Structures are given as structure tokens and as C-alpha cells.
Amino acid sequence: MTEILRVRPPRRALAAAVLGLAVAAVGTATVHASADTPALVQTVQKLTRSTAWSQTGDVPLRFDAHHPQGMLRIGGLWWMSSVEILEPTVRYPTPVDGYDRTPGKGQGHLFAFDDDGVLKADILLGEGTVYHPGGIDYDGESLWVPVAEYRPNSRSIVYRVDPATHEVHEEFRVADHLGGIVHDTERDRFVGVSWGSRTFYDLKRNGRVAGTQPNESHFVDYQDCNYVSGRSVVCTGLAETAGPSGAIRLGGIAVVDTKKLTVGHEVPVFRWSATGSSVLRNPSDLQLLPGGALQLAVVPDDGATARLLTYTARP
Q1: Torsion angle, CA of 119/195/146/64, rounded to 10 degrees?
Q2: DSSP label at 259?
Q3: Residues lower than pLDDT 70 in the chain
Q4: Pairing relation of β-strands 168-174 and 105-113?
Q5: Taking a C-beta distance cutoff of 8 angstroms, is the pair 111, 119 a contact?
Q6: What is the pLDDT of residue 173?
Q7: Nearest CA to 111 among 308, 248, 293?
Q8: Residue 294 host element (H or E)
Q9: Nearest alpha-carbon partner for 26 in 81, 79, 65, 62
């Protein structure tokens, strides 16, 4: 039986002790490699609504994935943030103290699993009502994970996690719900997105807000973002609304300028999981394969039905 690492950071500590076994040696995530940066962005910008995405993989996750949020690959492991909901939020009839719903209860997870869907680590993140991890990023050294209250206009804690030792550091706090964050390594700044990605945040290294910008695109709400160059972040997400015959869900990919905090190229992705979820409902990871094809890895479904699906496209 594989021993699973479970780590809980102290409530306000800057470092956490690691319990159990360390996972395998950590390599470099292809999507963040500097050599891939220009080509990856250029390839994404060639995607159109008629781009064909061919499914190339379907692996069941052999653990309870709860509600996945962000995902990326480092070496031979997939890292995925997820929220375990213990008590759902409930909307108030009228706002209370500026909130539209109760905080609910839950637990934040950062999972590591292999290509067979076998869980290798479970790092617990958050404190109190701050239990909802968002989209994650990797800068070549550390994983960056925002954990927020499960309601808009709330608060977040941004954690830095060492993928080799699993040490957890609380880096800073932000007085809003951050649904995703990326580390702009050239400027040593962070770009964050609010609830529904309606606001972009430009954050200094210590978490102070250097500026904000309304997201002028209303195509999709970004679920997961990854930094890929000095000017570009690639985000994926979902638009969902009630239709006459049920919910209508559409996934999309966007390129965001890290300095202007504006959206450039956007494109829909017309693929759905076996349960009817848009493949971009939850986390994603984009990599450029040898020969110029794009690989999209996703986990669109929750809990016991969660599967790692992969697709390729050649714009």
C-alpha cells in the first residue's frame, strides 16, 4: 500500500513541518520552461473555435478528488488543488456584513498524484473559514496556492509550497477572494483574479496591492491560470447559465497581459466530459508537445467521478 503524505500547516506559521514520506524527485514543468514560452503563447493565439481537440487519455483518479480547482505537472507528478465541502454555503435573503452568503465549512487540499491516478501526497491548507483553494502556479521552485473564503468579496491567504519537501509557508494575505494567482518571475510580482475573475490584481512581492483592473472580457470566468512569459498568462475557465432545457456550459481559453492586465486572444473549447461537464469546468494544464501540438490536461468532474482527461490540438 502506498503511504500517503498529509501535511497541515500551523494556523499562522511561516513554515510547516513535513509528516511522512517525501514524494519522488521534482523536475521542471514543461509549460513553464523558458524555451517553450514564446512558442506556447503563439500556438495558443492560433486556436480558433473550429480547432479540433482529439482525446488522447482517460485515467480515473484513485482517490476522492473533492472539487478540483487548479492543476499543473512537475516532473512525473500532477499537482492539483481542491476544496472539500463539509457544509455548503447558504445565500442570505439580504446581504449580511457585506456578504451574500454564509461562509460554510470545508478543507483545502493540495494533492499530488501520478500518471495512473494514484495519490502520492495530500497537503492540507487554510484556516477557519478560509478553506477554498484556487488556481495554482509553479515558478520553477515553488508552488503558489491562494486559499480563500468560499464567497465573493472576502479574504485570502497565499501559500508557497515546496514540491520537493512539502514545506508550507504563508506568504501574505489579501482582503478579497482570490480565485487564482500566478507569479510573474521577471518582475517578481503576482497577478491574481477575484471571484469570477471580474477583477485583476497586480500584487507586489509582499502581497500589497499595486493596482487593480476590471476584467473587460465577459466571455468566461477563469478557473485556472499559468504564467508563461514576461507578458503573458494563459487562463482557462467556464461560462455557465440556465437554459430552457437545463444548464448551458461553455469552456474557454484566454491570454492575459501581465502588465496591462488586459485580455488578448480568447477561444471557446467545445468538449465535454462523460457526465456533461465542460472539460474546462475545473483545473487545466496546457503544454506544448514536440512537433508543435498542444496538450490540454483537465479534471472536469468531482469526487468519485473525477478523471484525468487529456486532449491534443494542432492549430
Answers
A1: -10
A2: T
A3: 1-38
A4: unpaired
A5: yes
A6: 98
A7: 308
A8: strand 294-298
A9: 79
pLDDT in tens, 8-27: 443 333 333 333 333 333 33
pTM of the model: 0.88
As beta bridge partners, residue 183 has 190
Give the list of residues 6+ apart from residue 170 with CB closer than 8 angstroms, or none.
9, 12, 13, 14, 157, 158, 159
Q: Which three cell numbers stand for residue 262?
A: 488586459
311 and 271 in contact (C-beta within 8 Å)? yes
Question: What's the rounded Cα separation, in Å, for the pair 180 and 191?
Answer: 8
Q: Residue 156 carries which side chain, given as an amino acid letter?
A: S
What is the helix (H) or strand (E) element at residue 256, kind and residue range? strand 246-257
Residue 150, CA distances (Å) to 70, 108, 131, 177, 225 in order: 15, 11, 7, 8, 19
pLDDT digits (tens, 9 = 90+) for 226-283: 998 778 999 999 999 988 988 888 999 999 999 999 999 999 999 999 998 999 999 9
- The strand ranges marked E within 61-155 are 67-74, 77-87, 91-96, 99-101, 105-113, 119-125, 132-133, 137-138, 143-148
Cell of 304: 468519485
Alpha helices, DSSP H, located in the chain = 37-44
What are the grid coordinates assigned to 311, written together?
Answer: 486532449
Under DSSP, the state recorded for 267 is: E
Residue 182 is predicted with a pLDDT of 96
Question: What CA–CA distances, in Å, run from 149 to 94, 106, 247?
Answer: 19, 10, 25
Length of the chain: 315
Q: Which of 276, 195, 182, 273 lies closest to 233 in space, CA to CA?
A: 182
pLDDT at 202: 96
Q: Are strands 119-125 and 5-7 parallel, antiparallel or unpaired?
A: parallel
